[in-house]
Amino acid sequence: MPKSAAVNHVDNRQEGDDAAPALDLVHLSRQTLGDQALETELLKLFDSQNAQFAARLRAPRQPGDARARADLAHTLKGSARAVGAFALGEAAEAYEEALRRGDVRSAALCERLVAEIERTHREIGALLDNAER
């Protein structure tokens, strides 16, 4: 039986990284009532969902797809905030609002959102790798 990975709540910054962590692990722990197996499961599901969202966001924009993209960003915003990925939630919110307003900056905000998804993915990967050691 595979051992259960536990998320290390001490420090989730990467070596040489002065930026704030992508995940607030204290928030995540509060959301799961400290159940580390649940935290691990949620992070894996969240990471998988983000990979699907990133692929959809990278797809070429089509006329009339702003609403679907805004709805996608809205879903991502909620799930990101639930697990403590607040910067990702903010990027999703900015993109969603720009799309709903018809703001010409939406393409740049989409790139920012995808970059934040990638940063969060790297951090989740590092956390889960460390937890399995």
UniProtKB/TrEMBL annotation:
Gene3D superfamilies: HPT domain
Location of the region described as Disordered in the Swiss-Prot/TrEMBL record: 1-20
Ranges where the HPt domain occurs: 35-131
Residues bearing the modification Phosphohistidine: H74
Entries under InterPro entries matching the protein: HPT_dom_sf, Sig_transdc_His_kin_Hpt_dom
One Pfam family cited in the UniProt record for this chain: Hpt
Keywords: Phosphoprotein, Two-component regulatory system
Descriptive protein name: HPt domain-containing protein
